[in-house]
């Protein structure tokens, strides 16, 4: 037997509808609009009730039920981690990606400012200087982008004759020199917590490779093609410019084979070589998927133009790489202000995919050669998600070379445990 649809039941059913709560009046006059009735167009309010409800009793207020948004407009409650979350205007780390154009060629991004005040990137740049090193080959005119053949902006063009490298120094120039070499993809900024530790006893120098950070980022085929052979030759030019006398070298990650090639040809200049998570075994010859994706045909060019994919995703996929938002913005900056950084990353990823195996084999032969006399120490972040530790101890242990393990660090040790690595380097060099 069907239930009688009494006035009370009608009122209860209408109150269950997902609408803004409103007052029902036992009066023949329609209720005046209240602030409760204002809202988005998708909110539909029930019509005012007529005098037929007067017999029900005194004026009734509908129960307050929480309004539910349609699934397409319902906000997510999950809070993103700090390095993925765009800060709110009241936060200290507030930044504006869509601000007015400042620098860059604007090929893929506007080159916006990060905020009205000084940023970590500005502060870091103020600490460094530009060093001219490595001659530019040929004269092929103005660089053009690989998609449409449009002439790119100044940041994508080669210098007139010699490349410009961004270098930061710490400590007295009279102290023994230590050259700090970052890996792929990273910047000299990754050594920001290492350099102060070394500065009391050493003259520490960190630099951005060509194609990274604040150094020149020429368009491939217009002065620099980002091959490993070119990187090895350019490293020699830079060392001659910043450290003409003896020095020690600390190199991290996938640029270790390049540094070892240079060291093998200039052992008389080296006091010590420190390798930090270098690719050395047969398992290390293939790039991790996050790096290899930039070498894919067409997709690589597209992926490399995404600042979060090219910086945050790559850096955080290799270990416990936790950064504050202000530090993450330093790594994003090159990809935000110009398309040149993305094209450089795309080119070096292709070069690594092609030549890394041969360079690793060469590095292994150099290190186990009887002619290798340079003191060598290996520091290994045990939480490296890119390079397996299996076989590393067997190789270096067989050469009687010291291995220092860092249990809490990943692939980019200098970022994860900067002060710890700095003290370790001091102990090794001492």
TrEMBL record:
Domain AB hydrolase-1: start-end pairs: 178-416
Region Disordered, annotated ranges: 22-51
InterPro entries linked to this entry: AB_hydrolase_1, AB_hydrolase_fold, Haloalkane_dehalogenase
A molecular function GO annotation: hydrolase activity
Alphabetical keyword list: Hydrolase
Cited Gene3D superfamilies: alpha/beta hydrolase
Key word Hydrolase present: yes
Key word Transcription present: no
Segments crossing the lipid bilayer: none
Protein name according to UniProt: AB hydrolase-1 domain-containing protein
Organism taxonomic ancestry: Eukaryota, Viridiplantae, Streptophyta, Embryophyta, Tracheophyta
